[in-house]
TrEMBL record:
Native species: Acropora cervicornis
Alphabetic keyword roster: DNA recombination, DNA-binding
Molecular function, one GO term: DNA binding
TM region(s), chain numbering: none
Biological process terms in GO annotation: DNA integration; DNA recombination
PANTHER family, alphabetized: CORE-BINDING (CB) DOMAIN-CONTAINING PROTEIN, PHAGE_INTEGRASE DOMAIN-CONTAINING PROTEIN
Name the UniProt record assigns to this protein: Tyr recombinase domain-containing protein
Superkingdom field: Eukaryota
């Protein structure tokens, strides 16, 4: 498996191996019934079951030497789950982006520049997933300053990556009307202040003890700022910045093609 798949499936593979060990089954060449029992007993959501199936398929083969996730019985099992419990959206509504912008403006991120605030600005402006925010790179060929902002080329594998798919460019547009809320002004100031400390590190998100920030830390920071801004984080998770930004853009009559181009599919 490539590293991205290994990271994504690590938890599911560990749980699968533990499950097989309890039943004295070979986790790499298991009976089909073991796979179905494992998926059924865990009570996972539809999306999580599909991820678990992919994780199991990545390390096992069925008796006919095909991936076990493609076995007709497994496919029928997944379809049955989807029919019995149709997938529903996580949120029926979302929070108002203006809440966060008002909060950030009140503390003036440029004067009290904090990476948490910068990340919180980038998240709704770019409407990207946390994974994409985490891999933003300022290295040669990755970041380009243009007249109206910054462009980032995503060079790492992302969720949408697939054969024939062109990875979108993340664009951060300047907002000269209010420098304290301008993601480009804030990022320029942040890069200026961290330049003496970076060494060879090129990831945008970089903090003490002077190393790149983990994806989990980015999510925690976004949650912290959302809470401070008055957003109910018991309901809305850090990933909700994406939905909130897209809905705000749609409400502002931004063309749907522009939204898709900016946020990625």
């Amino acid at each position: 498996m490539v590293r991205w798949d290994a990271e994504k499936y690590k938890l599911y593979i560990k749980q699968w191996i533990d499950f097989c060990c309890e039943r004295q089954a070979d986790p790499y060449n298991p009976p089909l019934t073991t796979v179905l029992v494992n998926l059924h007993e865990r009570g996972l959501s539809n999306t999580t079951i599909n991820t678990a199936r992919s994780a199991i398929s990545a390390i096992t083969l069925s008796e006919d030497k095909n991936t076990i996730g493609c076995h007709p019985l497994v496919s029928r099992f997944i379809k049955g789950i989807n029919k019995g419990s149709p997938p529903t959206p996580r949120y029926l509504s979302t929070w108002n982006v203006q809440l966060v912008l008002t909060y950030l403006a009140s503390i003036n991120p440029l004067d009290k520049l904090d990476l948490k605030m910068l990340v919180m600005l980038i998240a709704p402006v770019s409407a990207q997933r946390g994974q994409s925010l985490h891999i933003l790179d300022i290295g040669p060929g990755c970041m380009k300053k243009v007249p109206d902002g910054h462009k980032f080329l995503l060079t790492a594998h992302i969720k949408q990556s697939r054969p024939g798919y062109k990875t979108p460019t993340v664009v951060l547009r300047a907002y000269p009307a209010n420098p304290s809320l301008c993601v480009c002004t804030c990022s320029n100031e942040y890069l200026k202040r961290t330049k003496p400390l970076r060494g060879a590190e090129t990831k945008l998100c970089f903090t003490k003890p002077y190393k790149r920030v983990s994806r989990e830390t980015l999510s925690r920071w976004i949650r912290t700022v959302l809470t401070s801004a008055g957003v109910d984080t018991t309901i809305f998770k850090p990933h909700s910045t994406r939905a909130a930004a897209i809905l705000r853009a749609k409400a502002s009559s931004v063309p749907i093609q522009e939204i898709l181009k900016t946020a990625g599919r």
